[in-house]
Write a structure and sequence with these properties.
The protein is an alpha+beta fold. It is about 35% helix and about 30% strand. The strands form 2 sheets. Strands 8-9-10-11-12-7-13 form a 7-stranded mixed beta sheet. The radius of gyration is 21 Å and the shape is globular.
C-alpha cells in the first residue's frame, strides 16, 4: 500500500466538501482557523489530500514558516490528519507518518511540531515512533470531551442535571447570534476574564481574526444569557459562550460567567441549549475543548458532567 499527500491540489470548495464528510473533525484543521493563524503569526498554509493506493483517504492541513528559502524552517501539524470513514487504522497512520517524515525530515535549522489526532496508547506511540518521530517528554497528551448533540438528560451526571434544572427554574433569557453582532462583546468579556484569571486558551486576537474568516459562513455563534433586572432594560447580562461550527462538528471555544450567572448555573443552560441549536444546524458532535486535571479540576468536572466521551491524543512529537 502506498500513501501520498497531494498538497493544494483541491479547490477551496472541494476541500470543504471532503472536510464535511469527516466525523469529529476538529477546528485546528479547518481552513478558516488555518487562515486566521496565518494572519496572526505570518505563516504559510498547505492543505493536503491524503491518498492511499489511489483512493482519497483523508485530509491534513499544516502551517509553515521559513526564511532564507526555508534554510531556517518550521512545520506545524496540529490535531491531524483527519480520516474519511473506512480509513485511519494503524497501517494508514504509519504510512502517513512515514510520508510526512520523508517530506519534512529532521535536519539542521528545521523545527517540527506534530500533534497527531490519534488516540493515545502504547501501540499508537510505537507506530508513530517507528516512523522517526520523537515524543516530547515534557508534554502530555491532549484531552478533550466530545458530546453528541442528540443526547438526552440520561447522560448527564446528577450534579450537572440539578444545576441545569436550577437554571431552567430561574426563567433566564437566552439569545443566540450567528451574524456577528455579539462577537465583539463576547471577545471583550473573554479577554478581560482570561487576563484576570490567567487561564490558557486562544488569544483574543485569534478570536477576532477567526470571526472575520467565518463571517460569511455564519459559523461563529455566540450565546448570551440575561436575567430580569428592574434597573437594567432588557435584563442583566450574566453569561456568554462562543461556539464555532466546522463541517459536521462544532467546538466550544470560549465562555464567560459573571457572579450572578454562577449563582443560577447560567452556563449549564447555555451549553444544554447549544446541543439542540447545533443539532438543528446539522451538527452531530460538539468538542468541549481541553482541560487540565492539575490546575483546572473544576473545568474538567463541568465538562465531564455533560456525559461526553473523553479523547486523549498521543501527544506532541518532533
Amino acid at each position: 500500500m502506498k500513501c501520498t499527500v497531494e498538497w493544494n491540489s483541491l479547490s477551496a470548495k472541494d476541500w470543504l466538501v471532503y472536510f464535511n464528510r469527516i466525523p469529529q473533525s476538529n477546528l485546528l484543521q479547518h481552513p478558516d482557523y488555518i487562515r486566521a493563524m496565518c494572519r496572526k503569526d505570518h505563516q504559510r498554509a498547505r492543505f493536503g489530500l491524503i491518498v492511499m493506493d489511489g483512493q482519497p483517504a483523508g485530509l491534513v492541513s499544516i502551517l509553515e514558516a521559513g526564511i532564507l528559502w526555508n534554510a531556517i524552517h518550521g512545520v506545524m501539524l496540529d490535531r491531524g490528519p483527519l480520516w474519511f470513514p473506512g480509513f485511519g487504522n494503524a497501517v494508514h497512520v504509519k504510512l502517513f507518518m512515514e510520508a510526512f517524515s520523508q517530506e519534512f525530515p529532521v535536519r539542521f535549522l528545521r523545527r517540527r511540531r506534530i500533534i497527531p489526532e490519534i488516540q493515545d496508547g502504547a501501540t499508537a506511540r510505537k507506530i508513530i515512533e517507528s516512523t522517526g518521530l520523537s515524543r516530547r517528554s515534557d508534554q502530555t497528551g491532549y484531552d478533550t470531551f466530545w458530546v453528541k448533540t442528540d443526547q438526552d438528560e440520561r447522560f448527564l451526571r446528577d450534579s450537572w442535571r440539578q444545576c441545569l434544572h436550577k437554571a431552567q427554574r430561574a426563567a433566564l433569557k437566552v439569545t443566540w447570534d450567528d451574524q456577528g453582532h455579539l462577537v465583539p462583546w463576547m471577545c471583550a468579556q473573554y479577554a478581560a476574564d482570561k487576563s484576570a484569571k490567567g487561564y490558557p486558551g486562544p488569544s483574543p486576537r485569534l478570536l477576532t481574526l477567526l470571526s472575520q474568516e467565518m463571517a460569511s459562513s455564519r459559523s461563529m455563534i455566540v450565546g448570551q444569557v440575561r436575567q430580569d433586572s428592574a434597573s437594567i432594560p432588557g435584563g442583566q447580562i450574566i453569561a456568554g459562550v462562543l461556539l464555532v461550527c466546522h463541517g459536521r462538528s462544532a467546538t466550544y471555544l470560549a465562555g464567560w460567567t459573571g457572579s450572578m450567572g454562577r449563582e443560577v448555573s447560567a452556563h449549564h443552560l447555555l451549553l444544554w441549549q447549544s446541543l439542540n441549536m447545533l443539532k438543528q444546524r446539522g451538527i452531530w458532535e460538539l468538542d468541549l475543548g481541553g482541560f487540565n486535571e492539575t490546575t483546572a479540576q473544576g473545568v474538567k468536572l463541568f465538562k465531564e458532567g455533560m456525559g461526553g466521551t473523553v479523547f486523549r491524543g498521543v501527544g506532541h512529537y518532533y
